[in-house]
Amino acid sequence: MKNPVITPTREVRIFCAASCVGHDEKKGPLGDCFDLHDDKDTFGQKTWEGSESEMQRLALNAALAKAKLKSEDIDLLLAGDLLNQCIGSSFGLLSFQIPYLGLYGACSTAAESILLASLLCGGGYVKRAAAVTSSHNCSAERQFRYPIEYGGQRTPTSQWTVTGSGAFLLENAASGGSGSVQVAQVMPGRAIDKGITDANNMGAAMAPAALDTLDRYFRATGTAPSDFDLILTGDLGREGSKILRDLCAAAGFPIDSVHSDCGLLIYPPDSAGADKHAGGSGCGCSAVVLASHILPQLEKGILRDILFIGTGALMNPMSIQQGNSIPSIAHLVRLTSVQDIN
Amino acid sequence: MKNPVITPTREVRIFCAASCVGHDEKKGPLGDCFDLHDDKDTFGQKTWEGSESEMQRLALNAALAKAKLKSEDIDLLLAGDLLNQCIGSSFGLLSFQIPYLGLYGACSTAAESILLASLLCGGGYVKRAAAVTSSHNCSAERQFRYPIEYGGQRTPTSQWTVTGSGAFLLENAASGGSGSVQVAQVMPGRAIDKGITDANNMGAAMAPAALDTLDRYFRATGTAPSDFDLILTGDLGREGSKILRDLCAAAGFPIDSVHSDCGLLIYPPDSAGADKHAGGSGCGCSAVVLASHILPQLEKGILRDILFIGTGALMNPMSIQQGNSIPSIAHLVRLTSVQDIN
User: Fold this and answer.
1) CA of B277 to nearest chain A CA: how many angstroms apart?
2) How does residue B340 score in pLDDT terms, banded at 50, 70 and 90?
3) Cβ-based neighbours of B264, under 8 Å, separated by 6 or more
4) Which residues have a Cβ under 8 Å from the Cβ of A282 and sit 6 or more positions away?
5) How far is CA A310 from the centre of its chain?
6) What pTM was computed for the model?
7) C-alpha distance from A312 to closest chain B C-alpha (Å)
8) Contact status, residue B309 vs residue B233, Cβ threshold 8 Å
């Protein structure tokens, strides 16, 4: 493929977003940004899986309410989560009755859903699309590791699955979209496997995928890290972020001065008593940080041009038990502030 | 949404397809159609999950070989399967190093992947895309029900997960695509839940989703069942097909004379000793039947205008254990023979 970077045919805006989080996320440094939260993490449901679905419903509901739209105003839902067979999304979004395409990109799904929504809106296929993703610490722990009641010891490189859901509404600007954040370009990632087999070190598995995506993007566009206000990775955490910065420096494009990671932004460090070890992870991590902390800065023009790189580890517990290493992926979305462009 | 039907902006063709199946599928009535098979169902791998991944690799490899293309000639992969976290696709397609977007639509994923590939090729975003899906009876049985060694008794309404993978190559006709099967229109399905809780009767859960999609399509386009040579559902099986036909007749558009179902085509009836009960199911079912039995008839102009409706049940074993009913979805792809159009 000569140029893997794709530009939506018509201008596409993220015109509204909303987030819904649990107790620990609300108490974290970004707590004030989030739209909805539940201190008990249950969201009134009897099962953790039900709680995760309810977060998706609440996040999309909140986004629609903020935009003063009804579900019939949205032409297409693009959604996914980490649960087996993506039941967080299928149950959570059932009541909206919007045509629905399910995605699986592990923790990169927020970026994947925005990427596809922007191309479909930009191609004139749909007027408005919603991109929704979630993760829940308790449903993820018992599915991927141990039930939380077991009290399993966590390694220093392990990350903490964020309890949260983010919903983004996108619209083709030609059809009246009034948002001030534009999806300027997107680039799908490739699955990359560098042989990491430690399921408690997802950051190390995902960092090479982020490097591959950044390297291909910079080559294809002739840009460099300094051209951007921010290079925001999804959930590499402390370990993966350090590895990515080292890899980028070795590849000749150091990113230290512009790099940040949603998994590092959402919780305080362990030295402040957070017990989150290497930081946040999960589909919900990058979704809620982007929706509620980063987008407002783009809307105000505080940030003008950023690369958002959703990172995901494409494994499951059985693939690890069978001795396989962890393929990872990183999808890129370039977001610009329309304040700056006009 | 005023009109949920979407037409690719430029003409898009499925210019090549290939399939890879297991023992029982090869011995079935369509056995001669399939490109590759392994009588032992292992495809030389040590685990059933590895076998499923290997089928995806073989199917895409075969499609590329038939088209005389290399992996770098394909701009984008759209793929998915039934395994937790879609590891069939991520491991199976890793070696191609093609930008990859993972999908989850349960057994509707073949239709979902063709739908998205046609819109992205038709929008001019990519020149060529590949849509790949799979299921494997042994990996699905142990994940969704019991390991096959357990010998669990199956109910009469239960379906048999097909061991198979199908790969489709799509190209925008303006960029030189020479195939003779056009993706004329597509329509994403809505998640529909009519309260079915019996995980051994997926046909009953999925039939109402197929009805919803057909009903919306006929209303939006002003067409009727008699306008098509074939209305092909993915894997409703015997039980679900009967329910869909009854539902369509009650809704005023009987489909009996043009309806067929991939799950009914792939195996002989139990009266002939097949032991497949209500028929085939799984992502691989509609993928291999479409790729190797239906597409050749469109290529030759024997079929001229068909509706392919991928059906999927969006549950997992835990959602069933927690007492939830089974939301389902049906994505529509209208395929026409270019022989007829020109």
Assistant:
1) 24
2) very low
3) B237, B238, B241, B279, B280
4) A82, A107, A135, A136, A137, A140, A161, A162, A164, A235
5) 5
6) 0.98
7) 11
8) yes
